[in-house]
């Protein structure tokens, strides 16, 4: 499983990829709590609702490939009055967490609405994680895992075979399952493609710099040659 890399532990890694991730879901399902558990390993029972959006970053390492994946995380507000702002945050996103509360059937319906919107509006190939939070309240559960799997199977059988949908449950309060969610997302993202694209850009940049240095050297040699000719004439 991937391990979290703290800010002061982060070092340059030749296998490094960075991705934008957005959190969506109804208010009070625990989106911010999941992020803070992942980023800071903290939980606050009295956390206030997010206004607009909050931005955080965290990196994890996939040990078997020695790859560092950095998430740029946009935690969006769940209140209806902020819904119109959501496209601004999921635009160009590589991954999305659609969070619901396992003790609230209505929040699961809302998460499905977000997935429908992402499939229509978000970039092609986006990785979607359908995440049920608050497993510490198992005795109050209203959304069971069979219901979730049935919904996802229906999506895949209904003309969305290209969809990358991950299902998971967690408890932001206890921390159970939180890191595993981001581990699954990191492994579903096109890490190798991004690393290769970055390497190509670096090679092209180095080539341009070399050509520019070559032009400067040629100009210098031409100038020296002109000076030597003028000297001989004198």
UniProtKB/TrEMBL annotation:
Q: Which GO terms describe its biological process?
A: endosomal vesicle fusion
Q: Recorded GO terms, molecular function?
A: GTP binding; GTPase activity
Recorded GO CC terms = early endosome membrane
Does the record's keyword annotation contain Cell membrane?
A: no
Alphabetized, the UniProt keywords read: Nucleotide-binding
CDD domains assigned:
Rab5_related (cd01860)
Which InterPro entries does this entry report, sorted A to Z? P-loop_NTPase, Small_GTP-bd, Small_GTPase
What Gene3D superfamilies does this protein's entry cite?
P-loop containing nucleotide triphosphate hydrolases
UniProt-recorded name of the protein: GTP-binding protein ypt5
Lineage of the organism: Eukaryota, Fungi, Dikarya, Ascomycota, Saccharomycotina
């Amino acid at each position: 499983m991937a391990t979290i890399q703290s800010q002061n532990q982060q070092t340059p890694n030749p296998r490094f990829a960075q991705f934008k991730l957005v959190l969506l879901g109804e208010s009070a399902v625990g989106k911010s709590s999941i992020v803070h558990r992942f980023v800071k390993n903290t939980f606050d029972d009295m956390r206030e609702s997010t206004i607009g959006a909050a931005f955080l970053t965290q990196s994890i390492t996939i040990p078997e490939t020695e790859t560092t994946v950095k998430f740029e995380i946009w935690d969006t507000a769940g209140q209806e009055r902020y819904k119109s702002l959501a496209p601004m945050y999921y635009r160009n996103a590589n991954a999305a967490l659609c969070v619901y509360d396992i003790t609230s059937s209505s929040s699961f319906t809302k998460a499905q609405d977000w997935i429908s919107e992402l499939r229509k509006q978000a970039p092609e190939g986006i990785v979607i994680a359908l995440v049920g939070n608050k497993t510490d309240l198992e005795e109050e559960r209203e959304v069971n895992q069979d219901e979730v799997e049935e919904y996802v199977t229906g999506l895949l059988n209904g003309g969305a075979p290209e969809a990358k949908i991950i299902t998971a449950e967690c408890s932001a309060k206890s921390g159970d399952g939180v890191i595993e969610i981001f581990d699954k997302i990191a492994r579903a993202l096109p890490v190798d493609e991004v690393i290769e694209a970055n390497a190509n850009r670096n090679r092209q940049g180095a080539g341009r710099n070399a050509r520019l240095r070559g032009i400067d050297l040629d100009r210098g040699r031409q100038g020296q040659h002109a000076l030597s000719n003028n000297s001989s004439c004198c």
